[in-house]
Amino acid sequence: MAFYLVELTKSVTVHPRYFHAKLGDHVIGRLLALTEGTTSGRYGYLIAVVQVERPLPPGRILPGTGHAVFPLRYKALVYRPFLGEVLDGVIASLTRHGVFVAVGPLSVFVSARNVPSDMEFDETEQCFTSVVQGSEDRLEVGTLVRLRIVGMRRDATEIAAVGTLRADYLGVLG
Amino acid sequence: MELGSEQEENAERLQFGALFSDAERCQPLLICEVAEVLRQKRAELPAELQSSLSPVFTKAETYTERFNQFRSAEVAKVVRARLERHPELHPFERTQLANLLPETAAEAKSIIPSLKGKIDDDVLAQLLHDLAALVE
Asked: d(Cα B90, Cα A31) in Å, to the nearest integer?
C-alpha cells in the first residue's frame, strides 16, 4: 500500500470574528477540519496534515462579506492507490460472488472469477476453500491477502477499486 | 471529472499522473515510516481529542500496525538508507520492495513488473536478502 507525503494548497476562509491574536491558530484549525479524513479522486485519502508552511500568508479580505481568505501551503500524508499496483489487505466480508478486501481506508472488490484458480466457494462453510488436496488455504473474514488492482473508478469524493488474486505470487499471504 | 482529463495512470508502467510524478512535491513513504508519523500525530493530540480522529486516520493506523514489518524508527532509517543505495530504481519501486518484501528476484519482478530489465537478479536478490535480515 503506497502512502505519500505531498505538498498541497488550500484556500481557507475565516469569519471576521476571528481577527484577533489567535487568528493563526484558528486558520490552521480550519485547515485541519476541512482536509483531514477527506477522500478525493485526485490525491486519494488524506490521512493527516503533517506540516503547514510558515509564516502564514497574509489574508485577503473578500469584498462584501468581510471574510478573509488565506491561501495555505501544507504537507499531507495521503494514501493513493494506483491501477496495476500490488498491495496487501484483510478480507472484510465475502459472499459467493466475491470478497471485499480492506486496504486501510480503501475497499477492493475481488470477484469470484478472480480468486485463486484452485479455490471454490464452499456452501456449508460460507467461505472460499482450496480444492487442492492437503492445502489449508481459505478465504474467510480476517484472511490476509496480496492482490493487484485491475480496475479503479475515481470521482470528486470517492475511490472504488476491483482487484485480482489470480496470478503468481498473489493470493493468501503465507 | 478526473478521468480522461489526466494522463493515463498505471503503476506497472510507473505512470502516476502529474502530482504523484513530481519528486519536488511528492515522496512515497514506507509503511514503517507512516506508522511513525501516525504515532507522533496521535501523541501530539490532547486526550480529549483522541476520539475525534477521522475513520481514514484510524483505518490507516490499523493497517500500518498490522503490516509494518520493521518495528522501530531506527530500523526504518536503516531500511531507507539501504534502498537509497539503488538510485537506478524509481521511488515507487523502492517503496514496494520494502513494503511487500518479496523473497526472490523472480517474485519481485512479477509483482513489480517495471523492475524487469532495470536491475540484475543477483543485485536484486542481495537487496532483498538485506531487507529480510532487518525484519523483526
From this structure: 32
Nearest to A77 among B3, B34, B59 (CB): B34
Q: Do A102 and B34 touch (CB under 8 A)?
A: no
Distance CA B88, CA B123 (A): 12
Domain termination site, one of B67, B89, B120? B67
Smallest CA–CA distance, residue A164 to chain B, in Å, is 12
Contact residues, chain A, for B4 at CB < 8 Å: none
What is the rounded average pLDDT of the residues A100-108? 97
Residue B83 is part of a domain; what is its CATH number? 1.20.1250.40
Residue ranges in chain B modelled with pLDDT below 70: 1-7
- In chain A the domains, ranked by start, together with CATH numbers, are 3-79 (3.30.1490.120), 86-172 (2.40.50.140)
Of A155, A157, A79, A38, residue with least CA distance to B5: A155
pLDDT score at A85 = 97
CA–CA gap between residue A126 and residue A119 (Å, rounded): 13
* pLDDT, tens digit (0-9, with 9 covering 90-100), for A18-43: 999 999 999 999 999 999 999 999 99
- Calculate how close chain B gets to A160, using CA atoms only, in Å: 13
